[in-house]
Amino acid sequence: MMRICASLSSADDLRSGDLAKADIIEIRTDVFNTVPKDILRDGQTGMISFKGDVDVSILPEGWIADTGCASAEGIKGETISSYHDFRGTPSADDIFHIMASMDGDIVKGAFAVNSLADAVTLFDVSRRIGRHVIIGMGELGKITRIRQREMMNEFTFAYVGRETAPGQMSISEMRNIGDDGIITGIIGSGIEYTRSPAMHDASFSHMNIRGKYLRFDTPSLDRLNDFITDFNIRGVNVTKPYKTAVIEYIDGCDRMSEEIKAVNTVVNDNGVLKGYNTDVHGIEAALKMNSVDVNGKRALILGSGGAARSCAYFLRENDCDATITSRNPETAKKIASEFALMFRERNSVAVKGYDMIINCIPLNKSSGISEYPIKIEQTDPRQTVFDMVYGETHLNELAVKKGCTVVRGEDMLAHQGVKAFELFTRRKTDFRIMRDAV
């Protein structure tokens, strides 16, 4: 069973009913001058974390003493030696030598996790150290806090009032997930905007599934396979810029994903990672719910990334005459060749000659209008405009103003999320639950 230490951020936390959910209660000397009386309930353990000088006189009998990097010699009772690196994660060997040199009964290390590989490094070190607590700080480090059992940690940390370390989660969240909760998430770079966690967490809650959907914002896919399997992650969605690159990191794909050469969903099936493409389902369902039929129509695709590949596949399979243009002509030409599309150079397209404009370029309101590869002001009221980017965009705003038929990226996002959720959990969720959470 998950063993949780509640780290208190202020005296107000002492009045929280969530304290009863803790196994250990941490009193930090930079927050409290003295140890509050009668703080422990039956079965709970107290811990003092000394920030600065170690004053043994304030340590109640039976409490754990975290002495930081100071010597733990001479202290009666259980001790913890701890080390923090708020900048990054050193090599596994460097972490091992740091922690092996400490003299506490338990050694604790907390390191800023900046990539998937950093998290796996902490996992690797956990196999080499005796009694320990090894924690990753930051959003990418949350998985090390949740997966206490996989990390072989003596306990993990959670907050009661507000977080006391980067990436810490509330004790209620941690208890809800537990040791065996389903962990899913989204992998990409520069994805602080994503609404996928809100969608999937809403479905977990609605369906009473113990689970959590996390955001894994990483500069590379290095050690992706280890990251997913070591931390027992059930599956991940994949977004920019990794929808194509991810294929070489997994064990295989379904037929459609292989043909598209883009994966946006990876499922961990007992250590075997298989890729799927739920974007195609999202595109089809979003168009259908807006009564848009692409058969026999002329469509213009903007962009040449993974989403554009999914769009090109869908349009080809539905007998749509499609053209592609992009800020990157080489990747656009490649898609045109693979899916039998027409390629046109940037800003050379007569926009009014198409029934439908589909944007697959991640441009939001902070982007400039000139960043589109067409003159979007040439759109016509009779056209359908489908911007896969959710939220307000220049293209969406203009399409609404002109009276175009508008297909929202939020609809596509929720529909593909429903399909991904089913792949992760083998259970169907309600589209409206996800759509309302976007």
Structure summarized in a few sentences:
With 438 residues, the chain is an alpha/beta fold.
Summarize the structure in words.
It contains 14 helices and 20 strands. Helices cover 29% and strands 21% of the residues. The radius of gyration is 26 Å and the shape is elongated. The chain is of the alpha/beta class.
Q: How many domain modules?
A: 3
Molecular shape: elongated
Helix content range: 25-40%
Question: CATH H level of the largest domain: which superfamily?
Answer: Aldolase class I
The CATH class of the largest domain, by name, is Alpha Beta
Tell me the Rg in angstroms: 26 Å
| Helix-strand category | alpha/beta
Jot down its keywords.
438 residues; alpha/beta; TIM Barrel; Rossmann fold; 8-stranded parallel β-sheet; 6-stranded mixed β-sheet; 14 helices; elongated
Task: Reconstruct the topology from this structure.
Elements lengths: L3 E4 L16 E5 L16 E5 L14 E3 L12 E7 L6 H9 L5 E7 L3 H11 L5 E6 L4 H5 L1 H4 L4 E4 L11 H7 L4 E7 L7 H11 L4 E7 L6 H7 L4 E4 L13 E2 L1 H6 L4 E5 L2 E5 L2 H11 L8 E5 L3 H12 L3 E5 L3 H11 L2 E2 L12 E4 L24 E4 L6 H9 L2 E3 L1 H17 L5 H7 L1
Parallel strand pairs: 1-2, 1-8, 2-3, 3-4, 4-5, 5-6, 6-7, 9-10, 9-11, 12-14, 15-16, 15-18, 16-17, 18-19, 19-20
Antiparallel strand pairs: 11-13, 13-14
Helix pairs in contact: 1-2, 2-7, 6-13, 6-14, 9-10, 9-13, 13-14
